[in-house]
Amino acid sequence: MATAATPRVGIIGAGMSGLCMAVKLQDAGIDSFVIYEQADEVGGTWRDNTYPGLHCDIPSPFYSYSFFPNSEWSRMMPPGGEIQHYLRRVADERGIRRHIRFGTEITAVRYEDGRWRLSTDSGDDECDVLITATGFLRVPRVADIPGRDSFAGPMFHSARWDHSITLADKRIGLIGTGSTGVQIVAELGGKVNQLRVFQRTAQWVLPFPNLRFTRLRREMIRRFPVVARPGYAFWSRVISTVYGRAPIRPGPARRYFQTMCQLNLRFSVRDRTLRRTLTPDYQAMCKRLIISGHYYRSIQRPGVDVVTDEIDHIEPRGVVTTDGLLHELDVLVFATGFDARAYVRPMTIVGENGRTLDEVWADGPHAYRSIAVPGFPNLFMLMGPHSPIANQSLVPVAEDQADYAMWWIEQIRSGRITSAAPTEAATKHYNEDIKAALPETIWASGCNSWYLGEDGLPEVFPWHPGRHRELLRGPVVADFDVRGP
Q1: Between the chain's N and C termini, which has fewer beta carbons within 10 Å?
Q2: In the predicted model, is pLDDT for residue 1 greater than 50?
Q3: Dihedral through CA 405, CA 409, CA 411, CA 412, nearest 10?
């Protein structure tokens, strides 16, 4: 039974962030934690997404926990299956599985009498500190197209890929040309009977060679984990100082990405008509920058067609575009992304005085320094609103946020406090600063992307990633409503 000095911690989600939080608790000597996972395995998005061509767009040395270097990466941009295998290894080797309740969905949580009461589909539970690690690209979004349910063939979202279907002999329709769509095209182009790509918006694509790592490198890291540190440090600096700063303000880094994307398109696509079709009307990095080494090569292969006419409706035989043309298909895939503003939803979170998180977020998701919300004591969000998801590797983001939560957990553990939540004033001031800075970023330069909220402003971190780490390095206690024992 946990005491006040050893707080019981509940973690919702066993993906990358949830596992990170679990390790941080273990390293602090706290064993009184439970991870609630609705699926039957760890991994989060890397468990759910298994579509052809799936790979990470962050160099693998920097898509690893700083405390758990991975010797098994085969490439610079690791395939999704390798990331899932890595997360399973972390759960196994750190002994985290015994803390996980698989197949347990949290339907609602409520703060009562100084504790969080959790309602699950298998019973109730409670904890002193609640960590939400539910991810941010988790809930698939399927376009509401007239006649969608009438299609006679297999139809699914890319995050729910049906591997029972053979593809080589099929006419496949792919709706969506974001990061997922590009990876699917790069993998399937020229390998299936027909691939019809329904493009609403062209994308800038940054070329990046996906180098294969040698067996010697893997063996060296396996025997001497310290060998992985220089690679981690190198890519940390590159992403933080180049990729991380380019969207924030004009300068050489931004011009570099724009030029490289333009040159990639110019020299990769010879047909002028197709090149015009694939040329975006916005600046590179306004949307999520797509990294691919052979997308343009695949999209020019026999059997691949790009359709730019809008979809009018779907019928049993296929997709009908606004020009009246029926595109007959055997399989229909929606690579239409996710609800980027779902966060913890559809779970209901009730804080003090009966206020729900949905009520607090009526005008859009917001938080104090991406991690906490006024009126919700001892609740910490990993990958919460305005986290630096657009210009930083998510793994160090999760580590920084977990460390911030750990600082408060240690205060509770020591008996100095019983609860903490940011004040309304501090949270309002922080979010006003964010809104003032966002219009200067490239994400607000005129494109329509999933970064944008209902107010038209991007819901991302408007400064370089290093500032996010600085903001979370030391809590400002004066910004919190702190209660004693």
Answers
A1: N
A2: no
A3: 140
Question: What contacts 419, CB < 8 A, 6 or more positions away?
Answer: 114, 377, 378, 412, 482, 483
pLDDT digits (tens, 9 = 90+) for 327-384: 999 999 999 999 988 899 999 999 999 999 999 999 999 999 999 999 999 999 999 9
**Of 134, 54, 452, 157, the residue nearest 288 (C-alpha):** 452
Q: What is the DSSP string of 404-419?
A: HHHHHHHHHHHTS-SE
Is it true that the peptide bond before 250 is cis, omega within 30 degrees of 0?
Answer: no
Q: For residues 288 and 141, what is the distance between their CA atoms, to the nearest angstrom?
A: 17
The phi and psi torsions of 167 (rounded to 5 degrees) equal -110, -30
How much is the pLDDT for 2? Answer: 41
Q: Contact 177/201 with Cβ under 8 angstroms?
A: yes
Q: What is the CATH number of domain 148-209+249-334?
A: 3.50.50.60
Local structure of residue 310 (DSSP, 8 states): P
How far, in Å, CA of 82 to CA of 90, rounded? Answer: 12
Q: What would the mean pLDDT of 139-162 be, rounded to a whole number? A: 95
Give the CB-side neighbour count of residue 226, counting CA atoms within 13 A.
0
pLDDT reading at 122 higher than 90 = no
Domain parsing of the chain, residue ranges: 9-42+96-139+339-483, 148-209+249-334
Q: What share of the chain is helix, strand, coil (3-state, %, to 5)?
A: 35, 20, 45
How far, in Å, CA of 289 to CA of 390, rounded?
A: 9
Which H helix or E strand runs over 17?
helix 16-27
Q: Residue 94 belongs to what H/E stretch?
A: none
Top CATH class of 9-42+96-139+339-483 equals: alpha beta
Q: What gap in Å lies between CA 304 and CA 72, rounded to an integer?
A: 34
How big is the chain, counted in residues?
485
pLDDT in tens, 416-450: 999 999 999 999 999 999 999 999 999 999 999 99
100-102 and 33-37 beta bridge pairing: parallel
pLDDT in tens, 282-308: 999 999 999 998 999 999 999 999 999
- N-terminal to C-terminal alpha carbon distance within the chain: 19
Alpha carbons 369 and 401: distance in angstroms, whole number? 9
The radius of gyration of the chain's CA atoms, rounded to the nearest angstrom, is: 23
Residue (of 292, 345, 329) closest to 156 by Cα position: 329
DSSP letter for 226, please: G
DSSP state of 150: G
Contact status, residue 383 vs residue 2, Cβ threshold 8 Å: no
By three-state DSSP, how is residue 326 classified? strand
Is 473 exposed, middle or buried, given 0-12, 13-18 or 19+ CB atoms closer than 10 A? exposed
Tokens of 318: 């296929």
